[in-house]
Amino acid sequence: DLQICQHRTPTCCTKKMEESYLAAVRRERTQNIQALNFELKYMIVGHITAFQEAFESLLRFAENRTSSLFEAAYRPMAKEAAGPVKELFTDLSLYILGAETTVESAVLRFFDSLFPLVYSRLINPGITDLSEDYTECLRLTRQDINPFGRYSKNLVAELSKALWASRMLSQALSLGMEVINTTEHAALARECSRALVRMQYCPHCQGLTLIRPCAGYCLNVMRGCLASVSELDAPWREFVSTLELLAGELAASHDPEAALAGIRNAVNEAVLHAQLNGPQLSATVDKVCGQPKRQEGNLSSDTIVPVKEVTEMQTFVMAHTSLNNKRREFINYMKRSRTFYASIAERLCDGDLVMRDSSTCWNGEDVV
């Protein structure tokens, strides 16, 4: 009653043993592909981790520099500016990690939140009634009167260009992991499972427990089983080329380090521009939003919460250099993995599975 290991001579197998063999080849095939994938996955996961850690370090550094600007130059609004600054860098972090947001929306939302503070603490420091309605009116007015001049748009352009490649690289690495995980757990077709049993276990039914498959026979079976996986060869080569391109962009014109570190200066220039145009801005705001209550004198300094100046430039530069070196190593490794899916059958048939240095081997029917 055997369905797979049918043979002319007597056999020591039963149908139940064939079912055990079917379960075994499915398990072994998954384990063998996992073993092949291990190094590739290890490299990609390692780079994803290094990439995210370096970016978090870079974002923290840039956020601290931007926060310290308000403490050093614009003390009356330092405490209240902390929230919008934190929100800006959180949004940029989410963008890099692939969230459905844009650099433009993050930056413009930041300047929308900043304008009421600049207007009420620096341009008109006597305002006492900063109600929710008046604040919202100031936020909306920012979009029409453009108090920060070209600096807000310049910052959008600079960050969009610099962070695009980082976002794409982050998404590409995640996609690479998804592809590898999917190929590990792809279900075996019924005919493939039976072919693997004939190749690996049917000799046992004849008492030939030490004989192994012929190399050519193994390749034919594996190529048939992995035909769908082998079709990934062309897309995988293109994927590796894309990683090279993105790494090159990061190293050249899309350097996120300079762009994020430059946020402080861009914000400073924008606030200065608004202050210089204070009288014109006040005239326009009074027409649109009305005149709020005022008092003489400025905010007392005891309401200010100092922002600690963080001096971690050296640590940051070292982390950035380390990331660049790791990226180069990673891309060189990925170049060598171009043929990963084209050669997967050959590598599965390598090693102990097939008979190499012997005059006899199993061809699916008999010992030859």
TrEMBL record:
It is a lipid-anchor; GPI-anchor. InterPro entries: Frizzled_dom_sf, Glypican, Glypican_CS. PROSITE patterns: GLYPICAN (PS01207). It holds the Pfam family Glypican. Its main location: membrane. It is found in: Cell membrane. One of its GO terms (biological process) is positive regulation of canonical Wnt signaling pathway. GO terms for cellular component: cell surface; extracellular region; plasma membrane; side of membrane. Keywords: Cell membrane, Glycoprotein, GPI-anchor, Heparan sulfate, Lipoprotein, Membrane, Proteoglycan, Signal. Cell surface proteoglycan. Belongs to the glypican family. This is GPC5 protein.
